[in-house]
Amino acid sequence: MKIALIAPPYPLEEAPSPPLGLCYVAAACEAAGAEVLLLDFIVSRYTPEKLRAALDAFAPDVVGATAVTMNFPDAVAIIREAKAHRPAIVTMMGGPHVSFDVDNTLRRHPELDLIVIGEGEATLAELIPALKTPRRWPDIAGIAFRRGDAVVRTPERPLIDDLNRLPLPARHLLPMSRYQALGFPASIITSRGCPNRCIFCLGRRMVGSKPRFRDPRRVVDEIAHLLTYGISRINIADDLFTADKRRVQALCAEITRRGVRFDWSAFARVNTVDPATLQAMRAAGCDSISFGIESGDPEILRRVRKGITLDQARRAVTWSRAAGLRVHASFMCGLPGESPETLARSHRFAEELGIEYGFHFLSPFPGTRVREEIAEYDLEILTDDWRQYDANQAIVRTSRLSPEEMDRFVAEVYHRQQEKTDPMEARYLQGDCSDQEYLMFEGLYRMRLVYRLLAEDMIEGARLPAGADGPDPTTALVTHIARTTRMDTPLVDRTIKALVERGYLRWETHGEESCWFWTYNNRLPHPPPGRATG
Questions:
Q1: Crossing angle of helices 435-455 and 403-430, rounded to 10°
Q2: Which member of 235, 253, 255, 287 has the greatest number of CB atoms within 10 A?
Q3: Measured distance CA(95)–CA(118) in Å, rounded
Q4: Which residue range is the domain that position 297 belongs to?
């Protein structure tokens, strides 16, 4: 059985990390005996021609994809292209969007044969041997498919009790060097499940209300393995990392005991931290923490069932800073009952905390309580164009706030923040900045350049005359990239040379040309046979 798994395009501006969920799916497929190809179109430009060539080379029996709401249209378009090109393949999708929009998805997209609902690893273990035999599908829990004009849902599958039984994510199938070039952290999970009831979140429904924890030793094993790729920064992407303080302490103690050194960050709730927990995290290498506060208005917090208070937020921020952690808070715009006054309270509270913060817009995803019970809330959803569900624009209105007013509010907040950073950026561009300012803006400009290198396949398209600059053609590549992007040549030079020194970019000489390519990862110069991506 050959299975091609697809990571559909995702905006690079959203700082994507290597697709952890898809790597768990790939590992489950491999454990079931399948040969797996992972096509990563997050860090490589997608084109139908590229997809067709990859499918012809690999000849899969099955093509699968995952998606969140925002990139579902791209994911299903890729599935449609794959089915049209090779009609005999079985096509399937998983992920939060299709799990909670099963009927609409299957009825509107005949190119999709099957949906894996919710947590997929145990389902795949049973499904893979039966994928080519549709008459067996009704006996497999946790899936949905069509029978004639009807949508068939099999019984719900129980969640996996022991997460330690799961194989480690199959990151060896990813072009890791591309993610490392971007400088974004890799993600891991140490648990699944969230006991909280926020009306705008899918976590509780997707992975259950009771947290399930991985053995700290196995988590640190995974971290140690990740570090062998040259990754030095990791983000813990649990639904609620600090759900159990004793477990956090045990994990931090295991990291310290084994002398595993790396920088890491985590998401937490303001009512689940205390000074001892935060100090243990800092001692184990954690340098930043993010809190979802959502609103500075107590009534809004009550209405969305956030379950926190503003005083808890104040204490959590104070304790985190005292522990030496960089603190970030996220707020939402457009929650039920939102008004100019509630937004003003949120902004004042964010400023009061004296930390980094950002505002994002409410996106009422399929499966969330706010969407399914919309009549109970002072809220109107304005579109089902899934591409707009990126939390970067207003797609709702309340009785007292229009989407235009929401957009203006967030734009004004961003403008005020820019007014603080613009002088620093000017000093950077003039070469008269502090070391901290240099690191901040050099990283920003490099990231923008790497975005373009990846999204436009610039490296793959670089065929330069060999010998023009001696045995090392890097200068010719720098000149080519600077001319193509119209970006500052010294910046391009520093960036390209750093990517070459770290082993992310290499070249081969063919005749009179130097052909550049991204390495598969910095340990493997080329993709293993049958594992090429993008």
A1: 110
A2: 255
A3: 7
A4: 185-401
